[in-house]
């Protein structure tokens, strides 16, 4: 997560949805990451800490900003994220982790086939995008949710809202792979449709 006082935004970084590329621009105007071990401990254990001192994880949920920011400021700041088609996102993360020997989940996942990976991911709360974008009351708390599939259009809107240009957006962490549809048979398509139903309904996706 990135928060900017100067540009008044809260960016929730969804895995494998151009977030690492976006950070190259957003980090220049965002609050610096607090790596102090004491504040990391307090942040990870739910203590009330002002957001200027809070140690936000890269993929922190919106809930952490809601908990650490003053209510009026949290409501005022432009809260946005970029999401991705769940079927495509699963393939992207699967292939990415397999190439990253230092990734925290590499040892567990690199021998899995894709069907096994889908079953594993389905059990992980972080694998479901809606979980990152909800408020304490369970409602969606974003002012804008863009899509990777229409990234240029999404970033044009975001840029106008927060006063930044994404014209020089770099492309980072891309992995060569086949079209995502080639990874699926009918049974696996249906499995993802059921397990990721909330993402699919919330963001209006389908297997295309």
Tell me what the structure shows.
There is one protein chain. With 208 residues, the protein is of the alpha/beta class. The chain has a four-stranded mixed beta sheet with strand order 1-2-3-4. A hairpin with a 4-residue loop joins strand 1 (2-4) and strand 2. It is 41% helix and 8% strand. It has ten helices and four strands, in the order E-E-H-H-H-H-E-H-H-H-E-H-H-H. The two termini are 30 Å apart. It has one domain (2-203): 3-Layer(aba) Sandwich (Rossmann fold), CATH 3.40.50. The model has no long low-confidence stretch (mean pLDDT 93).
Topology:
Elements: E1 2-4, E2 9-12, H1 19-26, H2 37-44, H3 62-68, H4 71-76, E3 78-83, H5 86-99, H6 106-109, H7 114-122, E4 144-147, H8 151-162, H9 186-195, H10 197-203
List key phrases describing it.
208 residues; alpha/beta; Rossmann fold; 10 helices; 4 strands
Overview in brief:
With 208 residues, the chain is of the alpha/beta class. Helix content is 41%, strand content 8%. Strands 1-2-3-4 form a four-stranded mixed beta sheet.
């Amino acid at each position: 997560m990135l928060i900017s006082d100067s540009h008044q935004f809260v960016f929730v970084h969804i895995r494998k949805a151009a977030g690492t590329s976006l950070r190259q621009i957003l980090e220049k105007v965002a609050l610096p990451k607090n790596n102090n071990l004491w504040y990391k401990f307090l942040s990870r254990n739910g203590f009330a800490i002002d957001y200027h001192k809070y140690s936000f994880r890269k993929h922190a949920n919106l809930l952490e900003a809601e908990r650490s920011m003053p209510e009026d400021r949290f409501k005022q700041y432009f809260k946005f994220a970029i999401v991705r088609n769940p079927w495509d996102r699963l393939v992207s993360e699967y292939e990415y982790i397999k190439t990253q020997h230092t990734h925290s989940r590499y040892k567990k996942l690199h021998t899995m086939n894709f069907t096994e990976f889908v079953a594993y991911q389905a059990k992980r709360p972080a694998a479901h995008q809606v979980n990152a974008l909800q408020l304490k009351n369970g409602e969606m708390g974003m002012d804008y949710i863009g899509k990777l599939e229409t990234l240029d259009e999404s970033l044009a809107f975001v840029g106008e809202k927060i006063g930044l240009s994404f014209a020089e957006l770099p492309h980072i962490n891309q992995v060569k792979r086949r079209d995502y549809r080639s990874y699926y048979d009918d049974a696996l398509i249906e499995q993802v449709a059921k397990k990721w139903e909330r993402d699919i309904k919330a963001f209006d996706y389908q297997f295309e």
